[in-house]
Specification:
The complex is a heterodimer of chains A (583) and B (366).
Chain A: E1 5-11, E2 14-19, E3 25-27, E4 29-30, E5 35-37, E6 56-58, H1 70-75, E7 87-91, E8 103-106, H2 116-129, E9 135-137, H3 147-153, E10 157-158, H4 161-168, E11 171-173, E12 178-180, H5 203-227, H6 230-237, H7 242-252, H8 255-261, E13 270-272, H9 281-292, E14 302-306, H10 317-326, E15 331-336, E16 340-343, E17 355-357, H11 365-381, E18 387-389, H12 393-406, E19 411-413, H13 422-431, H14 440-456, H15 460-465, E20 469-471, E21 478-480, E22 486-491, E23 496-499, H16 501-509, E24 516-519, E25 527-529, E26 533-536, E27 545-549, E28 553-559, H17 563-568, E29 573-582
Parallel strand pairs in A: 4-10, 5-6, 6-7, 7-8, 8-9, 13-17, 14-15, 14-18, 18-19, 24-27
Antiparallel strand pairs in A: 1-2, 2-3, 11-12, 15-16, 20-21, 21-22, 22-23, 24-26, 25-29, 27-28, 28-29
Helix pairs in contact in A: 2-7, 4-5, 9-11, 10-13, 11-12
Chain B: H1 6-9, H2 13-27, E1 40-48, E2 51-59, H3 66-70, H4 90-107, E3 114-118, H5 131-140, E4 146-150, H6 158-165, E5 170-178, H7 182-189, H8 195-212, E6 218-226, H9 233-248, E7 253-260, H10 268-274, H11 283-292, E8 299-301, H12 320-333, H13 346-356
Parallel strand pairs in B: 2-3, 3-4, 4-5, 5-6, 6-7, 7-8
Antiparallel strand pairs in B: 1-2
Helix pairs in contact in B: 4-5, 6-8, 9-11, 11-12
The chains are: A alpha/beta (583), B alpha/beta (366).
InterPro entries (chain B): Elp3/MiaA/NifB-like_rSAM, RaSEA
GO molecular function (chain B): catalytic activity; iron-sulfur cluster binding
Domain Elp3/MiaA/NifB-like radical SAM core (chain B): 55-292
Chain lengths: 583, 366
């Protein structure tokens, strides 16, 4: 039961939370001032601490440092007493079990530092074992350089201890380095501790600066989480220490852990500026869904085109020119790094509309391999009467040729010099001569069906929207049944669908996989809080459209937590309700 | 005394776990030793109740510690230096003594006044050193001033001590108490006896002292371990200060040797150290404890082994030799002002560690 911690914002495994003490604390944060250690049972017997809600009490513990044999951990295990004030249980990554506390401190935390794989294993083991709505404390390790990565991995609480200790050792910490103080001719900082002549700056001052630098970095981390942009920051920040980059990459391999916690949409940009961006959950998930859930419903030829910097692509200069040449006679699929391929129906769908890449025209082998892999899978699943590649030489053509050869396809190339030069556009147009245009109706129907595929699962577009009519203008398409009852609306910012109650009912009745939240006997208005959730489907992700059902209500809304989190949390908003009716 | 033996005392799940783990750890060692050679022998100087004396220290190879064979103490690797499995015969033990006498003969101008015999076990345990061997060894050193023999408290009794005092030898039994805190001794060190057993052994020594009359003195020298695994630096310091005070208050215990833990191979401490879960204590902690307990009614000494190395007690590398030197000076003169003469920038780090280290963030430094 978590009474004193609540998660307010999520960004992958990172969260902005609130330590609900008498003076609340926004996390990730330093807890030095509020942490009260009731003491170790290794050194003495301990009274049950009195505790109160002004502080976070570490319950009496037997901490197992790294290297403690398993049998010793088992036999000396301590069960946390049940207390009604804010509390922390000390756990080891090897034998962690839920203790009913608001927070958990990792005992073998020092062993997890300096090794990417060890850190990721420790964090994932602990986080997967403790309730999602509890805070994780890493004491004695945070520095200005590593704290962004630690928070990104899923750690909520820190202290200034390591920063202070390193200061006393003469190490001047910044977000990029641990400088030897004696080597610094000037202090590269303007915090209060650094506002004094260099020769008067002591190691005690250095400790003060280090903690101050750590606090600043944590403020950036909190801002980044709120903005949904911590990963973009970490991809750069982690470069300052090899093991941090290693940890970020190791975490990318923890697909189950990271994917479950990654929202399906964000109102934020994705910076594709490093080779690691390609391995982000958002990128991999898009590629996966496009090649396993999405299905092309057009019978026209395929035209592969390069992506554009402007988003959505259709609003870019180049794509308007492509469109003028194509005139709805072909199905348009954009090739892009790092997303892979983007069918025209999904051009607004997160993150296709939200990424911004570094434009140089130089493709790395990793990028080529990734995009050709995705294009290959896409073409294995979707058959076209003809494939036209309207792509320039750099990278794009190489990729298409690889896939063409591997799948034994016959591709028509239409770019002479540059895709938007007159000759190329004329080639494109003439390659499609004789093809019939598809209608606006077909276009819009296929768009909402494609989005349903993408969001709900393979075949969902047909299961849900076999018999519909569409109204309003793209990209704000409204989906209605033949009787004109509205079922859903396309959300242009994220390329998703929001359902009406009628749409939600149709969804439940269809064969498409549903995302259900079961609630207690109340009628939710505004939001459903976690304690009211009885159960929730495990494949619900933050941002997903969910059907909310209980003895007294039927509702539809958007998930603010992932499914397991809704089911096991005791605090926080589980989902926001859009439409509800009493039953 | 109705003291439980190690064999029957091996109970309780914490102890079972420690023993199981330690047996596994020790089993990684593959080596055996010649029972006719002592494990180690060296010459030194020691502070005794009668002043500083030249000393011959002998580590007898007696087949090792019985407790260690069951698993044993979490920091102790000495068992690995004992003879595989078996016990050592009387003849072999006497061969070892001959080797030690030859060493002394070669390296010292005159016979050492003080003889110290350690066995990595209990010299007074007759399963380890027979009564015959014990008496023969007492005879061998009858002409010296003082003897120290190592034993667990169970085996200390006035008759065995009398084997030495009857020759007019002042006799000390060195007991590896490790800490006066039973909880720490049991759970962190995995040593099976209680402080009450130590007090009983001290009473036996006091009785032996009385029996010996004016011819000889008998007493107990307590060996303490600073910073067993699982304790923070501050907890380790507090544990030592209270332990020294409690030992000094026991009649019959005249000397306390407080020794910082070092990382020995084939121990649980080594496994913790390898996984970044243990750091030996700071030499500043040793100096602090010696200063704080300088007024107690006992000689308090410390002999840091492996000082300045990662595996031994250390500060910042810069000041390790200097602080070690001050500790050795304190051992001989018992004057804490020697520590006022050493200082280093790393004291601030040590103070910060003392203040901020918790068992859930240790070790804070390497």
């Amino acid at each position: 039961m978590t009474d004193y911690f609540e998660v307010h914002e999520r960004d992958g495994a990172a969260r902005v939370g609130e330590l609900r003490l008498s003076s609340p604390l926004t996390t990730p944060a330093l807890v030095d001032d509020v942490l009260e250690d009731a003491g170790s049972l290794w050194s003495g017997d301990r009274e049950r601490p009195a505790g109160d809600d002004s502080q976070l009490t570490v319950l009496p513990h037997r901490a197992f440092p790294g290297g403690t044999p398993a049998e010793v951990q088992e036999s000396f295990a301590v069960d946390a007493p049940d207390v009604d004030y804010p509390s922390v249980a000390v756990v080891s990554s090897e034998t962690v079990a839920p203790q009913g506390t608001d927070a958990y401190a990792l005992s073998d935390v020092q062993s997890a530092m300096g090794h990417g794989a060890a850190l990721v294993e420790a964090v994932v083991d602990v986080r997967e074992a403790i309730p999602t709505d509890t805070a994780l404390l890493f004491s004695g390790v945070a520095t200005p350089r590593n704290v962004a990565l630690l928070a990104y991995a899923g750690v909520d609480l820190f202290d200034g201890t390591a920063a202070a200790v390193k200061g006393t050792e003469g190490r001047y910490l910044t977000t990029d380095e641990a400088y030897f103080l004696e080597d610094l001719d000037e202090l590269p900082c303007s915090c209060p501790a650094c506002q004094q002549p260099r020769e008067e700056f002591t190691r005690a001052d250095c400790a003060e600066h280090n903690v101050s630098a750590l606090e600043s970095e944590l403020a950036i981390v909190r801002r980044r989480i709120r903005d949904g942009r911590l990963r973009d920051y970490v991809e750069g920040q982690a470069r300052h220490d090899q093991w941090l980059t290693a940890a970020m990459r190791e975490l990318d391999d923890q697909w189950g852990y990271l994917e479950e916690r990654t929202p399906i949409l964000r109102d934020a940009r994705i910076d594709a500026a490093t080779a690691d961006t390609i391995r982000r959950v958002e990128i991999q998930r898009f590629a996966d869904r496009v090649t396993t859930r999405y299905r092309n419903r057009f019978r026209n030829p395929l035209v592969l085109v390069p992506c554009s910097a402007a988003k959505p692509y259709s609003e870019s200069q180049s794509h308007r020119q492509f469109h003028d040449a194509i005139q709805w006679r072909a199905h348009l699929v954009s090739m892009t790094s790092p997303i892979g391929v983007v069918p025209q129906e999904l051009e607004t769908t997160y993150p296709a509309q939200h990424y911004d890449t570094v434009v140089t025209g130089r493709w790395s082998e990793d990028e080529k391999q990734f995009v050709s892999e995705v294009l290959g899978r896409y073409l294995e699943r979707n058959e076209y009467p003809e494939i036209i590649a309207h792509v320039p030489d750099e990278g794009y053509r190489d990729i298409v040729e690889r896939v063409e050869e591997r799948l034994a396809l016959d591709v028509t190339y239409t770019v002479a010099d540059h895709p938007t030069d007159d000759e190329s556009l004329a080639n494109l147009s003439s390659a499609l001569s004789g093809e019939l245009k598809y209608s606006k109706r077909e276009r819009e129907h296929n768009t909402v069906r494609a989005i349903a595929d993408y969001l709900l699962g393979d075949g969902a577009g047909d299961d849900l929207f076999a018999n519909i009519q569409t109204t309003s203008r793209y990209p704000k398409i409204q989906v209605r049944d033949p009787d004109d009852t509205q079922l859903a609306t396309m959300v242009p910012q994220y390329g998703t669908l929001s359902f009406t109650l009628a749409g939600a009912r149709r969804w439940l009745e269809s064969d498409a996989p549903t995302k259900r939240v079961e609630i207690d006997g109340f009628v939710p208005h505004g939001s459903v809080l976690a304690p009211g959730v009885v159960d929730a489907d495990e494949d619900i992700r933050v941002g997903d459209e969910v059907v909310v059902e209980g003895p007294k209500a039927f509702a539809v809304g958007r998930a603010e937590m992932f499914g397991r989190e809704m089911a096991e949390s005791t605090r926080g908003i589980a989902c926001e309700i859009r439409h509800v009716e009493e039953t | 005394m109705s003291k439980p033996t190690p064999d029957v005392y091996e109970q309780g799940k914490g102890m079972d776990a420690h023993n199981q783990a330690m047996r596994e750890i020790r089993s990684r060692k593959e080596a055996s030793y010649d029972p006719h050679e002592p494990t180690r022998v060296w010459l030194d100087e020691d502070n005794t109740p009668d002043g500083v004396k030249s000393s011959l220290t002998i580590i007898l190879n007696t087949g090792g510690c019985r407790w260690a064979r069951a698993g044993g103490c979490t920091m102790c690797g000495y068992v690995a230096e004992s003879v595989d499995g078996g016990s050592v015969s009387h003849e072999a033990l006497m061969d070892q003594i001959d080797v030690c006498l030859a060493h002394e003969d070669e390296n010292a101008d005159e016979p050492a006044a003080l003889i110290k015999i350690y066995t990595s076990g209990s010299f007074l345990d007759e399963r380890e050193v027979s009564a015959e061997s014990r008496r023969a060894i007492a005879d061998t050193f009858a002409d010296r001033d003082r003897m120290v023999v190592e034993s667990l408290p169970d085996f200390v009794d006035r008759e065995k001590i009398a084997d030495f005092t009857q020759h007019g030898l002042d006799t000390d039994v060195a007991i590896g108490l490790e800490t006066a805190t039973d909880r720490v001794r049991h759970d962190c060190v995995n040593k099976y006896f209680d402080f009450a057993d130590f007090e009983a052994a001290c009473a036996e020594a006091a009785a032996a002292d009385e029996d010996a009359g004016a011819d000889a003195e008998a007493g107990i020298k307590a060996y303490l371990l600073m910073k067993p695994p699982f304790l923070t630096e501050a907890e380790a310091v507090d544990d030592m200060i209270s332990s020294i005070e409690r030992c000094a208050a026991v009649e019959g215990c005249h000397t306390v040797s407080m020794n910082p833990c070092n990382v020995q191979r084939y121990t649980m401490v080594d496994d913790l150290y390898f996984e970044d879960g243990y750091r030996p204590p700071w030499l500043w902690s040793v100096a602090h404890v010696l200063t704080e307990t300088a007024d107690t009614d006992a000689i308090v000494v410390s002999d840091p082994v492996g000082h300045g190395s990662d595996r031994g007690p250390h500060n910042c590398q810069e000041c390790d030799d200097l602080v070690q030197k001050a500790i050795k000076d304190f051992d001989l003169r018992q004057d804490p002002t020697v520590f006022e003469q050493v200082s280093c920038e790393c004291e601030l780090t040590w103070e910060t560690v003392i203040e901020r280290e918790r068992s859930f963030n240790q070790p804070l430094t390497r």
